[in-house]
Amino acid sequence: MRTLLGTEDLDRSALDGLLDDAETFLEVLERPIPKVPALRGRTVATMFFEPSTRTRLSFERAAKALSADTLSFSPGTSSLSKGESLKDTVQTIAAMGADLMVVRHRAVGAPARVAEWTGLPVVNGGDGAHQHPTQALLDALTIRRARGTVEGLRIGIVGDIAHSRVARSDVFAFATLGAEVTLIAPRTLLPVDLTGWPCDVSTDLDAVLGDLDVVYLLRVQTERGGASVFPSLREYLRRFGLTRERFARLRPDTVVLHPGPMNRGVEIEAAVADDPRALVLDQVTNGVAARMAVLFQLLGGADA
Amino acid sequence: MLDLVLRGGRVVTDSSVAVVDVGIAGGEIVALGGHLGEAATEIDCSGALVGPGFVDVHTHVREPGQEWKEDVASASRAAVAGGYTAIVAMPNTDPAIDSSPIARFVVERGSEVGLLDVVAAGAITAGRHGTRLAHLDDLWDAGVRLFTDDGDAVADAAMMRRALEYIGDRGGVLAQHAVDPSLGAGAMHEGWVSSRLGLTGIPAVAETTIVARDLLLVAETGCRYHVQHVAAAGTVELIASAKDRGLPVTAEVTPHHLTFDHTAVLGTTDPVYKMMPPLREPDDVAALRDALRAGVLDMVATDHAPHADHEKDVPFEEAPNGVTGLEWAAAAVNTATALDERSFFEAMSAAPARLVGLTDHGRYPAVGVPANLVVFDPTVTWVPSETMSRSQNSPYLGRPLTGAVRATVVDGRVVWDTGGGADAP
Are residues A31 and A71 in the same domain? Predict the structure, then answer.
């Protein structure tokens, strides 16, 4: 594996391999000294061109747990504000001696362009509404640890699919791992044409709720002006939110995931968010291990 | 003695395609026939078509205001290399061509460069802002016959109606960049590719709603109306129906919309495939090809839209819209559609010349006709690898094409000759 730009091209054995490595690294993270020397002397540059705290910190924590050095780029304090292009910026950081770049950018395809411009291994840390592959890995890891396997599970992804890079990555990863995926959203939040997506679609959460093994709630992007794609946050909660009443109708072993940050009271009621079957904090912990697995495979590989 | 003889080509005239020599003197055709005598300059046209020089009703020369992308000189060089003898400069310059001094400036720059006829289109609204009419009478007096806010639609129905009324009174043509701004705010065609990539899509109805509305206004006002860069199959149906009803409607299609579909964006998300309107679906491409063959779409226009490397070397969504195309438009059309000789020259030359009233262009070879001609070999296959434009944002660079311009003659002067015999301008 040279880059990780999305989940569409990852086959079953690649995903299983990453998840197996991630389980190993989870064990490392529980040690008294949660660190291995696997990537000593290597430098991971986190290039986050759009604001992010949790994903950046997670990648940096993963790099450091593998003993890699980190270079951290933020747009606010950089020469981007002086008009430097993305291409010049990433080539400059590459010239400083980065061995791998994690790229988050608001524009679709930006990480692929960075890989082309720098020749470096690139991990997509989220590009527009396109892909966020390490989120899919940590989600799959979380489901696997909670339910023993992803294979054969019925997973419902609820919310703003159209604008979600998480949904695009999860659908392909979950399906490749053998899950039955259903997208659940009003038509205004669904992509226009789902040709080639390995999933079903429903516009009625209540109709499918009782069948689900995993309820994956997407964040309602209130900053995108939700009112233009659905009538109001109140009505969204009523039709697509995971309320206490809906939670009570889930099977006893059904788990709830959310990529964070949560809008309590919009897509998830607070009491549900705090239930032990809501695995939001497990996802965060597993995210560090999943990203360790990715960095290890891209930089260290089998010969490290 | 003749100034120039085009020797042994298949000459496409009003009535036939026949192998004859074309003799030129004093800027016009003076003889058509076998084995014409010697001339000061001769061009071997064997195996090639000789016909009226191409006319592009949709060129962005970028001057004044964006000369780092293109200027009249570089656009002229690219145009004659592509077989064009006249181009119509789009008014979305800086400042816009919304008044006569700017229009005259562009035309004069074309004359100074001296390679081919450069004429100006005028804006419909002042500054292309869509709020009040441009100086339409001044533009008319400066020779402008085609009016467009190209780059933006005239979205406001009341403004469009008023413009149709005013320009219709003068006998001019109102050309519409038919993309509804409220539906057209995306980066590519709305379909399965945009859905997969997470890019905001531009649905086909962004185009068809504007055309459908305009056609109702055209029926009411009687103004000549021209749809620019048709990209959606639905627009073809609207135009066909309007023509059946006898409305004064014409339409153009670009080489790239005849060649590529939205799947080109998949994979690399290369901004060289980003333009407005966007590349649509294979069914749209097929409908456009059929419509050009059937004459429902009247002509090819390049929408030659140069952008500098640094402007296109960015992520897809951040890149400006547009591709260059003057130099290989004819080759791309020939490759994509394989039109018969007569339809090819209608689409590339005669129809666009009629649209803008260029009486010295788009005329099939005959004695007494101005010598604005192209020598085009429709069989040779080649790969474009360099460009005369200042910009190189073309998806055709590096792609094999069938058909090549061998020579271009403007006013009896050889302005492009792949044999190396072009006259100095």
Answer: yes
